[in-house]
Amino acid sequence: MHKCLSILFLLLMKMYSCKSSFPLVVNTWPWPQATDAAWNVLKSPSTALDAVVAGCAKCEEEQCDGSVGFGGSPDESGETTLDAMIMDGSTMDIGAVGCLRKVKNAIGVARRVLENTEHTLLVGELATEFAKEMGFKEETLETNHSRNIWQTWKDNNCQPNFHANVKPDPKSSCGPYTPIMTQTKKVMSERNVDISQSNHDTIGMIVVDEKGNFVAGTSTNGLTHKIPGRVGDSPIPGAGAYAENGVGAAVATGDGDVMMRFLPAYQIVELMHNGATPTEAASKALERILKFYPKFNGALVGVRNDGEIGAACVGFPKFEFCVKNETSADTIIHGVDCK
Q1: Is the bond leading into 264 cis (omega within 30 degrees of zero)?
Q2: CB-based contacts of 146, cutoff 8 Å, min separation 6
Q3: Which of 319, 322, 100 is nearest to 219 (CA)?
Q4: Over 70: is that where the pLDDT of 188 sits?
Q5: From CA 90, how far away is CA 43, in angstroms rounded?
Q6: CA–CA separation, 62 vs 250, rounded Å?
Q7: Burial (Cβ within 10 Å: 0-12, 13-18, ≥19) of residue 31
Q8: Mean pLDDT score across all residues of the chain
Q9: Is 202 considered catalytic here?
Q10: Which is catalytic among the residues 202, 220, 253, 277?
Q11: Nearest to 111, CA basis, from 97, 125, 90
Q12: pLDDT digit string (tens) for 107-163?
């Protein structure tokens, strides 16, 4: 069984590894503007924490692929909400927000959770109240673009749809829904959610300063047409990102509802702690998910404390990520085929 699984895994997954030097910026997807923003801050008298905030905020401002920041991924009610997290590997402190409403700078609010509270995660409307208290502006996250996405979805009988075991049939009808009392449990391993850059994405960023301090962060507007209130993997420690000085850091992108059940970012760091390379660690973390969810789509990137970078992916046609250090004048975009 294990041998067959390994063969399947190798058919589905491609891997990547390289060696880098510090300071270093790595982020998911071909968004060099975010990499450059983080690098420019990192090279000034600033911290790795400052750099992650600057890099993720750049994507929030520019609405990278419509999947980060305002104006994208409306939920079933047409509202855009945001998830973000930042983790300091030197202290193991974390700040995160989930389902943040009406505040554009989600990564900035996450940092305030880290630095100005003794909590880890704030969510929803009360996270917005905290953000306002910290000086953030309350404003709509909707745009003509997001409203058009929602209207098109509504006109298409609310498809795709993420309800299950309800009536009317969520595969052909809009709600409101009521649960079906059945003894038949849905088989989640047969989940066939279309997760791609067109409907879901995350910027996951790892920054390492010249002293080897690791900080990891994420920001996203989540899954398009999600059920209101849904929070994905991005703000969940160990799922969307994880960092620990002396070991390394990792970030994830893909089907967050599945990934948060396995904490793959934490797995990568723990496996590196036990001697695995980043590539080996990313591969093993994905292999564990595939045992339960063979149709899973996702990608992982890890950086070890010696500067080695590794990535692995499944399900997507291709996964790209950015790397910037002092050896190159420009940010380099690396690609991994995920056939």
Answers
A1: no
A2: 71, 72, 73, 74, 78, 80
A3: 100
A4: no
A5: 19
A6: 24
A7: buried
A8: 92
A9: yes
A10: 202
A11: 97
A12: 999 999 999 999 999 999 999 999 999 999 999 999 999 999 999 999 999 999 999
Write down the residue that tokens 């409306």 correspond to.
Answer: 74
Digit-coded pLDDT (tens) for 277-291: 999 999 999 999 999
User: Per residue in 220-237, pLDDT tens?
Assistant: 999 999 999 999 999 999
pLDDT of residue 193: 56
Rounded Cα distance, 251 and 239, in Å: 8
DSSP state of 262: T
Give the pLDDT band (50/70/90) at residue 3. Answer: very low
Token pair listed for 29: 């997807």
CA distance 198 to 194: 9
Q: How far out from the chain centre does Cα 34 lie?
A: 14
Angle at 136 between CA 82 and CA 250, to 5 degrees: 45
pLDDT, residue 196, reads 52
- The whole-angstrom distance between residue 323's C-alpha and the CA centroid of its chain comes to 17
Whether omega for the bond prior to residue 160 falls within 30 degrees of 0, making it cis, is yes
In which band, very low, low, confident or very high, does the pLDDT at 201 lie, cut at 50, 70 and 90? confident
- Does pLDDT of 78 surpass 80? yes
- My answer on whether omega of the bond before 168 falls inside 30° of 0, hence cis, is yes
**Per-residue buried b or exposed e for 164-190, using 16+ beta carbons within 10 Å of the residue's own CB:** eeeeeebeeeeeebeeeeeeeeeeeee
Which DSSP state fits 264?
A: H
336: region left, alpha or beta (phi > 0 left; psi from -120 to 50 alpha): beta
Per DSSP, the three-state class of 321 is strand
Across 239-267, average pLDDT = 98
Q: How is residue 246 written in tokens?
A: 């002396």
Q: What are phi and psi of 148, to 5 degrees?
A: -65, -40
Q: DSSP letter string over 83-117?
A: EEEEEETTTTEEEEEEEE-S-S-HHHHHHHHHHH-
- Residue 213: partners with Cβ closer than 8 Å, 6 or more residues away: 47, 48, 88, 89, 90, 245
